[in-house]
Fold these 4 entries.
Entry 1:
Amino acid sequence: MPLRAMLALALLALTPSAPQAAPAARDSASSLMRALAPPPSPFAPTVCVVPEDQDPAAVRRVLAEQVAAWNRGDLEGFMRGYWKSDSLSFYSGGTVTHGWQETHDRYQRRYQAEGREMGTLVFDLHDVTVLGRAHAMVRGGWSLQMKDGQPRGLFTLWLRWFPEAGWRVVHDHTSSATP
């Protein structure tokens, strides 16, 4: 405890209670206590709020929402995590897909076409790194529990923060492990 605070407490303990002390003595004691009290600290505890465009937890929430949507069979909800732009890029299986609609259609052909199933998706996030304001990189693994097996692989995502939409995947590079 700082010396000034200890002196103020000692003075308070030695000051007679109000009825016995003369008003002048009380006033001089309280002004002395104010003089000895430590000044307010500029480093006092405060609440620190991380802006969402710099918050790795906000990135994780977008991916958790994607997993939840996928597991409900909601491809549209899953796709909300992607940037709705022709500039979205998706690299997987030796092919490059450009654009939100093309990426949506690719997922639809692979997982919602006749006789196909979406399965149960799990993401294992290895690393979520905010790369400065409004950019993040995520590295992780994915797996799908399907009736006929469990495909799995790795992914690297680049996300950007958009003030009107929040975090969105602008580039997805997903690989599949050999069964």
Note: The chain has five helices and six strands.
Entry 2:
Amino acid sequence: MTRQAFDQKREQLLFRDTAGRALRIVYNLMGDPRNVAHAKKVVQEKHHKHKGSARDGAPVSQSGKKAQLAKKEQTVPEEHSLPRTDEVAKTAQQPDVAKLEKSLAVLSKLKELEFHSRGNIEKLAELSLTIEEELKQKAFAEAIGAVYSAQDAFQSKILALIEAYEAECARLNPTG
């Protein structure tokens, strides 16, 4: 890839701020911190919302002490009125819910690994071009190419693992 082609590709990939100017290089490597923070917040909210609704069977709308008191009030009368067979079925279902929650946490971490892997591939591509085109260090070009290949192989394998693990989480989910 020539330097001119690299510059054109880079221009296409550059993120822009609200004024249309290219973001600083640190944002190209790491992403805009506002977007990263927002994405993290959304994932956490989804995780916590799913975690609460899986336990109670109802959407989570309250937080804090009021929610805890309401939850205690709901569970105390139900415990005394349930027959023994329902209690056995409920305890058998609780490990499945716990297993689902833990599996979803693992899935989230796998997706985080994949996100960082994508970033590593982008950084390695930039470094490779710098080493080959600007610095003309051919001896290191092969070495960084090997690292790039290994990271690309990791990316492929982590994507396949995520796909399989999502299927497993869907299987464990009683509502889906």
Note: The two ends are 47 Å apart (CA to CA).
Entry 3:
Amino acid sequence: MTSIGNFSLPSRFLRKNINVKSYKYKTQLYTRTMNTIKPETETELSIITTDYVYPTKLKIFYNTNSTYRNCLRTLFKMNSNNFPKFDVDLDDETRDENEYDMDSAAIAMNTVLGDISKNSLFLYVLDKAAARMFSTDREIGLSILFSYDYLDVFHNCLVFFYTNENEFTDTTDCYVELLKRLS
């Protein structure tokens, strides 16, 4: 992923001799490419809508890799039309692992990060999660919190935060549970 402002773009958008320019207009991120060899060939690469509202009514339950990935697809509102296409037959597990919409994931994660980045409790868990990968990058921490081991309890924290922001404290049950898992 390559970050442009607060947005991340999949690496496939970046190629040799291509400059990516982006600008935000209302709630859409317009991304344009310009061939650096032939600047006159600037074309619009994509329009990525950034209208994302965290699904607070979604119940998260998983006990297998497959059900976890389905929860993540639903949570990030992934579009199956954006899943990679394969010319070869893949086993079910491999196909399931690759059914991932990077654009939707980036939009969802950037929205969540923006929403929680002013809350000291979330900053603490983002730092703690990032440290599990020997990092201080809060985006890495967010990725860890959306991983199999933490998604269920992190989702509960986000739901509580989005629906009762003023009541979200360091004694909130789901927050205490998240800290325990991160320890």
Note: The beta strands are 2-4, 7-9, 18-25, 28-35, 43-49.
Entry 4:
Amino acid sequence: MARGDLTDAQWESIRRYVPVSPLGRLPRNLRKQIDGVNWRFRTGSPWRDVPERYGRWATVYDLHRRYCENGTWLAILLGILADAEEIGEIDWFVSVDSTTVRAHQHAAGAAVSEQELRAALDWLDAKANPANQKTNLPGRIEPLASYSRTILPNLSTTNAASSAGAARRGRARRNSAAPGEG
């Protein structure tokens, strides 16, 4: 076992959340392949640099991609969190001090049309809630199900006025095209 690989106790805690093949058994090298995925994300290296002890890099990548598509990674995460909560290791208490949340001085006053804002928010929704997201958990998991966005009707006119004032003072307006519009 290499440094950073799953211990026997860690493997047993996630093993029950891994899908079983139609033949009724786990793949022979599954633990090594999961260790390979962990190694890749821990080091930040390219997939082709995954060491041979974890199997062929393409096999490790295919496992990761398949588990992303069918929701296995999400099932493992939610299962581990549920187990930890059940034995009292997680209390879900979060404290946020608002004085430490700041925006950069250039983050204010960007002129964005309502159409550009809607396109950017639609792009964000598509990334956060993909339509083809599948899980092997009962019911559908929607990470941002309670997220709702509202666009104020006078938002574009307020930003247009502030950008006109900035242009009069000689500051160049930054192009704020929506993602995907290059």
Note: Residues 135-141, 143-149, 155-161 have pLDDT under 50 and may be disordered.
